[in-house]
Amino acid sequence: METTNLSQTADQRRSREPLYQPLTIRGMTLCNRVVMAPMTRGFSPDGIPGADVAAYYRRRAEGHCGLIVTEGVAIDDPAALGDAGLDEKDVPLLAGDAPLAGWREVVKGVHAAGGRIVAQLWHQGVLRKPGTGTHPEEPTISPSGIWGPLGRMTSIAADKIPADPKVGEPMSEERIEQAIDAFVRCARNAIDVGFDGIALHGGHGYLIDNFLWEGTNQRDDRWGGDRVRRTAFAVEIVRRIRAAIGEDRPILFRFSQWKQQDFRATLADTPEELAEILCPLADAGVDVFDASVRYFNRAAFEGSPLSLAGWARKVTGKLSMAVGGVGINQGVYDTGKKAAAVDNVELLLDRFEAGEFDLVAVGRAMLGDPHWARKSRQGEAIRAYDAEVDLRTLT
Ligand SMILES: Cc1cc2nc3c(=O)[nH]c(=O)nc-3n(C[C@H](O)[C@H](O)[C@H](O)COP(=O)(O)O)c2cc1C
Predict the structure, then answer these.
(1) How far is CA 46 from CA 42, 49, 86, 92, 133, in A?
(2) Which tens digits make up the pLDDT trace of 190-219?
(3) Which CATH superfamily does the domain covering 3-390 fall into?
């Protein structure tokens, strides 16, 4: 097994303790600021997370990860899930007796190990290839039936990119209601089985993001228009989830500038534009903004070194979470070099201690080593992420 000891001697090493301070968000108290990023794994046949999935998440809690955000869990909408270009299979569900019983065990294990866990609610929106998934007969849904502009830098395989960007019809008012209801129903299910809160997948070109981005939302009714109007769908989901789950449980909201359809897409080109999108969501009940970027320390806008998580915190006054390249030398989707472990926690601490963000999500490095949080704190050798092994098995 390849391990990398990147630690310095104890007295050379800068203290990482600031990252290991507790944080209370509504009724949820985390023992530290290290979060497992949401990562689709595909080990839940028939949508049911089994004992292996429970053990996989429990290992991260045992490794002192303060909060786990589950892999994307399909909401109870017939068009939520299909082939979205990433070879998705065996994605877990959040409705029905067997999936919910499975999640109950997952949560129990994480809690027994002292961890906290929130469920990431996911609807693939326009990225679901029509005719695929659990209900192949169901049309793919999106605000305007538009996949997005073609010919952009994309992570979608060439044979999965539609020839015509018009892939369906705009969602009707009834269909929008139906999708919102499914989000709310699944949020309630998540809380019923013991999850500590809700995470919404509002990025990467999936359904919620389809409404936020003008490349996929060209409506001129109450669900579209300028930036603020394009938040209406997300705001309604957050508002109704908040009403359904009460005041005690946090809501995390993931957003991204980039889309799988267009890596260079932006929702906002200035902090003011970012505020137009995030402030209505903050008002609706979001507690933590999870700014999905590929490198946590990239400047979000010209003229300031602040990251997107930093700006999210600054413009909303809410908590924010950084992610992207923590403990690993390449951004997700970079193919040029082999992933290797790197100790960049000091760079992270510079920003964290300056108050730029409140939480730090670790993705692939946490797949490589379930005890990443504990070992990074103590300067122990960390097992490096190996895609060949770590994506094929529940290590
Ligand atoms: C295998 C894999 C699956 C992922 N699945 C999801 C997902 O279900 N939901 C999501 O919001 N992001 C997903 N992501 C993105 C990660 O949450 C994270 O933002 C990204 O990997 C960057 O963090 P890292 O550099 O620490 O790996 C996935 C990433 C990987 C590597």
Answers:
(1) 10, 9, 18, 8, 11
(2) 999 999 999 999 999 999 999 999 999 999
(3) Aldolase class I (3.20.20.70)
